[in-house]
Amino acid sequence: MTRFNSQWMNAWQDTVNADPTLKIIGRYFTADFLVGFDDQEYVVSVRNGVIQRVTDSLSIETPWSFALRAPTESWEKFTQKLPPPMFNDLWAMAHPLHGRLRMDGDVKVLWQNVRALTWMLERMREVADQVVVEERATRV
Amino acid sequence: MTAVHEPITGRYVYIPYAGYNYRVYYEETGHGIPLVCLHTAGTDAREWRHQLTDPDITENFRVIAFDMPWHGKSIPPNGFEKQEYRLTAKFYSEFVMTFCKALELDLPVIMGSSMGGNICLHLAVNFEESVRALIAIEACDYSPGWYINWLAHPHVHGGEACATSVFGLMAPQSPADYRWETWWYYSQGGPGIFKGDLYFYSVDHDFRDRCGEISGNVPIYLMTGVYDFACTPEMTEQTGQKIRGSETIIMDGIGHFPMSENPATFKRYLMPVLTKITEKTPAGVG
Asked: Taking the complete model, does pTM exceed 0.90, yes or no?
């Protein structure tokens, strides 16, 4: 399995939805946002801190508020258990000095939910290893 | 049962500056060479609690950490509600030295981090006769990209946004409890104060063409952590090459808030610097 494919995204969704902290800090986090790994893009639908749906079936009618697009190389470093300097954080990668991740769209929604969003993305480091992920059914 | 107290003494002092009498809170411990600690943008002197309580530091240094006006327990001046807060290099540098003068500190060492590090370059140019040494942590000649409106916007929770924007500046190796304590400090800044400080940090502080003005008469130690994405080790190294009398120290496994995110790692790098400063100071001085 390649990281960041649909199984991996579903595994991340499960990890996020099992996280007790997001039940508290994500209570008002309701948004649809796009996550892009090179050309592979997903829209993540969050309702009250819970990821309800991840889809890669995108069209011009698929709504999203903000987008986080980065080369796979950036995400691979970000998701390491011990991420290297300059790749350990969403804003670190997106900061204008570095530009290793691009924030687009209605970024106000991003900043309104930045605490829960950051926590949610950091859970990518806890996604189970390859074998466990592959055992799961594809839901994307 | 005996209550456990820390050795820190906290006091309020009035600092007259530009026609206003600022009520300023400061904490201190120790004896010897005055070591004045400057907090980072949008927060307060609680960041220095570990160094204030470290006997290896306080046996030779009188460690003083104060809250700038608008920060921590130092209240803003009357009429603040009608102004947009924007820190300038002029106010910041002059206020730091006015504070030192009010406390009658004899040739203090100034140690600051982030904006407190950047201001050390201004102190080196304008106040070299009044300081013994400068320890500029996470400092460089130009640190753009932080003066952004989302940090002070009525549709965005300032505490959560400001604190989360700096969380990734800390190294993942730093203890989680200390990183979250630093996040907590940032969550408590007044509205618009972090952004206002960043006006100095990212706009008013531009030393790219001014490093040559530093004479080199005062020792300057530039210390930067490898996880600092606001002021990277490369940015500090390039600045250090332009400053006479400076020494650049890159710190592994730590980020933008060495004193509060990982005091043990920071101490390994700080103690040799403090030793150099004490060795340059005649016995009995301080």
From this structure: yes
